[in-house]
């Protein structure tokens, strides 16, 4: 019996039903480790999106709106328990879909359950304020759901991003139409089955796989959608913003980064190198928050570079389902080609590859490339400025703290930044000056359900995670009740 059978998904999920796509078309999913088709999913279009939005609106106006917040929260925690129960199976689906190593995807699924559990606990703690603005009047605010949310997720960490969006959206009483990335939709449909099993009312969560140019555009432009939450490229966010403009939809975006990672000479260099290597190459570099620009103080530059090369040489590149694999293949042939093009660009710009840059030995099929380190490039180079989304690290020296901050901020992005130092004053000074939504000291990018996450500049709008995320999914209504005994003043009496 094949331990990894072919997966055929021929229906999308809307209104609590499994429906055939209107066009009858399907998309193929390629296993990045083998380059073979391993699954098919529905290719949803505007008709299918319309069906899902109608179902979401019906649920919003129906029993979901009357459900007590504590009950909503319990349904989220029930869903969390099911996700945790099925972590091994969901992790395998994810690894076959996007090439991330199994030990990473199973961990991500378990953490996704914690995200859902956190927002399940938050559901009955969402409350407004009483405002004592004058005597003999009672003023208060209500936090009400925005409405129907269109959630669009990327291919690099699907399960994680489903929970980041579903958790706060459902906790605040919204309904959701989820459009997963067209190349990694299998786990979204598996999650929809757990939504059913958890007893979440029909239409509250709907899943429509499809292409960005068809299902994605239809969802973001649909007049029945009140908010769009998107994680992906800056260019796609601009397109969504244009689509959303007609209805003045609420939008929140997380759009990537070119994150600076600073190592000062007074740092614990062994720890800094270990974390810097992981931050640059985890997930095959296919993460918006990779520390892909490593800035090293010149007095320790040679020492740090040598240690980086030694540690990088120990990274095991291999198939996603191999337990020994540290990093897997790129998710697609297109992404591999893009990384190769950037490596050539770095060489054309005068950079020097100090390790990596080729195909790993012994891997004949699959979208693989070695972790690659460049030096000799300035921060103005395209390789230092543009998001590669592959395992390519650019190492740049600096002399002073001011220079380090200037280089760190010299980018159109501002998602994540990090620094290593034993000087507590420097830790706070540099953190305050770095233009990034998350700055970490003596660690890098500690994501957690309680920590707000989002970017400055072209890295996005709004925040995910923590209680800040809840604010992205509510309208604030102010209510004023006047109970004065005297006759009201008539400004038109005289």
UniProtKB/TrEMBL annotation:
The entry's active site is: 254
Q: Report the family membership.
A: Belongs to the aldehyde dehydrogenase family.
Using the record's annotation, list all stretches that form the Aldehyde dehydrogenase domain: 18-479
Keyword entries, A-Z: Oxidoreductase
Asked if the Swiss-Prot or TrEMBL record annotates the protein with the keyword Membrane, the reply is no
Q: Which Enzyme Commission number(s) are listed?
A: 1.2.1.3
Name it: Aldehyde dehydrogenase (NAD+)
GO molecular function: any one? aldehyde dehydrogenase (NAD+) activity
Q: Highest lineage ranks of the organism?
A: Bacteria, Bacillati, Actinomycetota, Actinomycetes, Pseudonocardiales
**Superkingdom of the source?**
Bacteria
